[in-house]
Model the fold of this input.
Amino acid sequence: MTAPVLEIHLSDSDAADALHHDVRVGLSADPKWLPPKWFYDARGSELFEQITTLPEYYPTRTERELLRRSAGEIAEWAAVDTLVELGSGSSEKTRLLLDALTASGSLQRFVPLDVSESPLRAAMTAVAREYPGLAVHGVVGDFTQHLELLPAGQSGRRLVAFLGGTIGNLLPDERAGFFTALRGALEPGELLLLGAGLVTDPAVMVPAYDDASGVTAEFNRNVLHVLNRELGADFDVVAFDHVAVWDATHEWIEMRLRACRPMTVRLPAVGMTVHFAEGEDMCTEVSGKFRREVLGADLGDSGFAVCGWWSDPDDRFALILATAT
Ligand code: SAH
Ligand code: AVI
Done:
């Protein structure tokens, strides 16, 4: 087994600068908001893993089933030497791709990229142990900023996996920028495998973001623990209620934190004092759900051609294979 390599494009001080910036902008806006990437410290990443096992949270198990069905076909289509995974987290479902791509004989390297270093290290160690012939080259980075720094293919092509429906956590402008930047970072013929949630019944979607056992509520509130720890803030975390609503206009689930009472919160590291009225909402995440024709058009506009589409019988989730044209 070759020791995994970790490349860091986002140092602790870069991350601190980015957090300060996002908090200054988001908490002075009306309505207040925070970008979802700040959920994922070690505890937030652990809570996300728990979410993936909840009965209400269908995206992970649906995508895993789609990967089980499609991995062999994808491996046949794509004789790739490198599998890149953006927002890789635990890389749990990725094993299905790794199995198929290693069985087909072309894969030499796995490149997981994530903002969250400790879960990334844990995933890299586990993958390196399970796939001794594979070079594991992790990247601590932000997929909205560091795509051009991805390692190039060695002798052949790369397949970039962006799974879990994380594409839906980008706002429409960010999503368009992401597809364009990704296309710019790839050579013609290289591939994207995208996992995306589809628009379905709100009676199915909303409980997935508001589970009976309260794990998603804890995940949502975790961002306040992050701000308390990283910025010396004094959020009374339990005084915020978890809210998940389906926004039919934007076709996204919006997660919010709602102040139970009027509060004044100090954030010394950014020199801010922020007031919350009773019942005031702060948006912490959007989770966009898509329609086939819209995703195809977005990908086409950015220089990708869809060459494979797999979805479940209830049309709740899709895996899309696209080639850089
Ligand atoms: N792909 C996994 C994990 C999804 S959770 C799955 O399908 O289960 C989202 C992951 O994306 C987390 O690991 C989080 O740390 C990472 N992430 C969120 N925003 C990011 C960003 N801007 N750049 C890189 N990683 C990010
Ligand atoms: C990572 N991402 C795709 C998850 C989602 O479904 O939007 C994050 C999540 N938020 C609440 N539950 C899960």
